[in-house]
Amino acid sequence: MIDFxxxxxxxxxxxxxxLDVQGIGYxxxxxxxxxxxxxEGPVTIYIHHHVREDAILLFGFPTREEQQLFRxxxxxxxxxxxxxxxxxxGGSPDSLVTAIYQENITFLTKLPGIGKxxxxxxxxxxxxxLDGFGAAAFATGLFAVPVVEEGxxxxxxxxxxxxxxxxxxxxxxxKVWLKLKKDISPDDSVDVMMKRAxxxxxxx
Length: 204
Hints:
Keywords: Cytoplasm, DNA damage, DNA recombination, DNA repair, DNA-binding, Hydrolase. This protein is of the alpha+beta class. The chain is built from 9 helices and 6 strands.
């Protein structure tokens, strides 16, 4: 089984990257392929090698923690690799782990492909199996699940998608949202939110 691949990214799509490993192009499906666009040289992608009767698929992640969390997710009844990938696309690992610890059904059911019953199964099956995932962040409260206030959720959701398309990760955007939500107005447009978020990202 393939554990990781290393090489330059030679092609990007919305759902996958193509990695050149010694002259062989590997198509790797990722939660956010554009995160790898920032690097001009070789990148390391941690792989889940999925084999089924009609296909062999590679799912890839920028960290080993995400790789392991993906594998935990697909152990839950009703969650296959595609749904697990959508879950990691819709929320950062820290936010996801925190939501499971807090039994936050509302947050989990907003993730792609997750209904109430599947969210309940995620909590039941995973709550006691995630001690090694984001434990420090959960304990300190640094990555509390973002609460979207009425009136600003739509604009931030659109701004977030735009920022993700620029290559920013869910973790980076969650950190920005924790600061940004204190100063925004319900009347702020998507452009205004993106500009403010970019200022924060550039400032570090």
